[in-house]
Amino acid sequence: MIDLHSRQATLAPARALLIASLTLTMALVGGAACAAPAGAPEAATDEFSSPPSRAAGSSARLLSSGPATDGFYRAGVEVDLDPGTITYWRSPGEAGAPPVFDFSGSTNVAAVDVVYPAPKRIEEQGIVVAGYDAQVIFPLKVAPRDPKAPVSLSLSLRYSACGKICLPARAALSLVLPQTGVSPYAADIAEAARRAPLRLDPAQSEQAIALDKSASDRWRLVWRGHGKAEAVFLEVADPLFVESVPRDGGFDLRLYAGGAAPAPVAARVTVLTDGDAYEATVTLR
User: Fold this and answer.
1) Residue 91, C-beta contacts closer than 8 angstroms, at least 6 positions apart
2) Which helix (H) or strand (E) holds 189?
3) Are 130 and 87 in contact, with CB atoms under 8 Å apart?
4) Does 20 share its domain with 87?
5) Among 194, 220, 235, where does a domain finish?
6) What tens digit of pLDDT does each residue of 89-128 get?
7) What are phi and psi of 2, to 5 degrees?
8) 187 and 207, same domain (yes or no)
9) How open is the CA angle 34-37-40, to the nearest 5 degrees?
10) Cα–Cα distance, 11 to 17 (Å, whole number)
11) What pLDDT sits at residue 261?
12) Which of 194, 224, 241 corresponds to the end of one domain?
């Protein structure tokens, strides 16, 4: 999870100023962001979906794929965005806040694995972020404690809905996962799971990703795998941050460390291509 406050001291001044402004805006309008607009239409619900929770610029609900298979339930968190609104990926980039999923209030749930579909590269107020600009479903893999007992998902969700201004959104959602029947959402949840980045093993990563150092805090990354690389995102431990800029068929990387750059730095890299998305672990040396 990215802490906006701790990063302010480590980013370049322009980015820090933007994040400070975003944080203040979210604090000032937080209460209003959770209220549904007067007269907002209610979406239809059924046994495979929770009632939608409306927030400024968006709504959210839980979806079920149907009965458990292979010992797990498949479900999803759907965030429906109004036109002109975006929300963020697990690692937003230069600004923004990732979604936070809290399933601690659930019943008969041992674990919930949240899957993040590949994000888009979005330019926002002169900076680049990773996120979604349309409806997105975050697939869930739910492990029950007792496979024979009913499972009730209870989710406290926090996310950002950003249009002309960025507003915090909250949703309290619950759904008893059906143990019989055919879900109308199964195909949509499966498609969202398919859009998650494909994980490369170390051998595949070495063949597909060329990474060369050009300065103490800079590297050059070239994608040699399938498809044409359109965007690259690197996730590193806070308070570090890696900026990625496309140039001449590759990507220039710069590490912001708030002082002397530590070495080596482990990073999770996500490459978006004109086909699939890929994920691997690299080391910035």
Assistant:
1) 2, 98, 130, 233, 235
2) helix 186-194
3) no
4) yes
5) 194
6) 999 987 889 999 999 999 999 999 999 999 999 987 788 8
7) -90, 130
8) no
9) 120
10) 9
11) 63
12) 194
**H or E element in which residue 191 lies:** helix 186-194
What's the CA gap between 241 and 21, in Å, rounded? 19
| Residue in the block written with tokens 């499966």 | 190
Domain boundaries, position 178 = 4-194
On whether the CB atoms of residues 242 and 261 are closer than 8 A, the answer is no
Which residues, 6+ apart, have CB-to-CB distance to 276 below 8 Å?
Answer: 197, 198, 226, 227
Segments of the chain with pLDDT less than 50? 1-42
At residue 85, φ and ψ (nearest 5 deg) are -115, 145
Distances (CA, A) of 23 to 19, 34, 179: 6, 16, 42
Q: Extract the tokens encoding 147.
A: 């496979």
For 227, the 3-state DSSP assignment is: coil
The CA distances from residue 110 to 66, 123, 144, 192, in Å, are 18, 39, 5, 23
